[in-house]
Write a structure and sequence with these properties.
single chain; alpha+beta
């Protein structure tokens, strides 16, 4: 059984440091030290841990701040022990983080993730209901470590309105695909993006397992990064909006795809925000 609560003790912060090394490697350059956890505890940061049999198996941490006249939390790091990933631990951590943010009267929680990581895309957009704010090129500069290194650190910035209920997962109904892939002996390889589509909605494909792509062929991983970057920046720069992510079975192959809403539909959806109170 997993139990989730706020972390306050130095020994708990030390366990967070150990889990970072377990997740990203002993030499991870962006490791958060115990001293940062201590300061965050003092200034209103949210530090939540997940425990199994008294052992820390996951945590998430966020920094307090303001955007205009709204209080926000910037969720900077989350980790779950490898053998427990995909079992709902991350979801429990984020729900507790949201409860504390509400208690602090924050409007939303903001964070980034790698847009080529389909598991994170599904979790953030389809499970939690976060909304994409922007695509940022090489947001963190050069990163190291097996999970985050090897390619440019492009990120999507997402907002999670703490007052809203969860999302409705989008479904694919044959709309145009602006970025798709072809099956090759080395795995799915992206085709050139299509930039002149004019439809209410379109889709952008990403690999189902980007870590596997990186492990087998960094050149191919860099091509995926470049093509998704070009497509995202092109359409978002013209008023399109990412409004969901889903896994689709297409041509006898499962694919991960972002759905983008066209200018008119994106404006209509935005007019209805922030949505129903939870």
């Amino acid at each position: 059984m997993i139990f989730v609560r706020s972390l306050v003790e130095i020994k708990e912060f030390e366990a967070c440091v150990a889990l970072q090394k377990h997740t990203w490697g002993e030499n991870f350059s962006d490791l958060l030290p115990v001293s940062v956890f201590i300061v965050l505890r003092r200034i209103g940061g949210i530090i939540v841990g997940a425990f199994q049999d008294q052992a820390l198996v996951g945590f998430c941490v966020s920094y307090p701040g303001w955007e205009g006249d709204e209080r926000v939390q910037w969720s900077d790091m989350a980790a779950v022990r490898a053998d427990l990933r995909g079992q709902g631990v991350g979801f429990q951590l984020k729900q507790r983080q949201r409860e504390i943010a509400r208690e602090q009267e924050c409007a939303r929680i903001v964070w980034t993730y790698d847009p080529l990581e389909s598991r994170n895309a599904w979790f953030n957009l389809a499970r939690l209901g976060a909304r994409v704010r922007s695509y940022e090129k090489c947001f963190y500069g050069e990163l190291d470590g097996p999970l985050v290194g090897g390619v440019d650190s492009d990120r999507l910035i997402v907002d999670w309105d703490v007052r809203c209920t969860g999302p409705e997962a989008p479904e694919y109904h044959g709309e145009p695909i602006a970025l798709s892939s072809a099956e090759t002996p080395d795995g799915p390889s992206p085709r050139m993006p299509v930039f002149d589509l004019d439809a209410p909605r379109l889709w952008l494909e990403i690999p189902l397992d980007f870590q596997s792509v990186k492990a087998h062929d960094l050149r191919l991983a860099a091509i995926w990064r470049r093509h998704l970057r070009e497509a995202m920046l092109h359409y978002l720069g013209r008023g399109w909006r990412v409004d969901g992510f889903c896994r689709v079975s297409l041509d006898d192959r499962e694919r991960g795809m972002y759905r983008l809403a066209g200018v008119a539909e994106a404006a209509l959806n935005k007019a209805g925000e922030p949505g129903s109170p939870a």
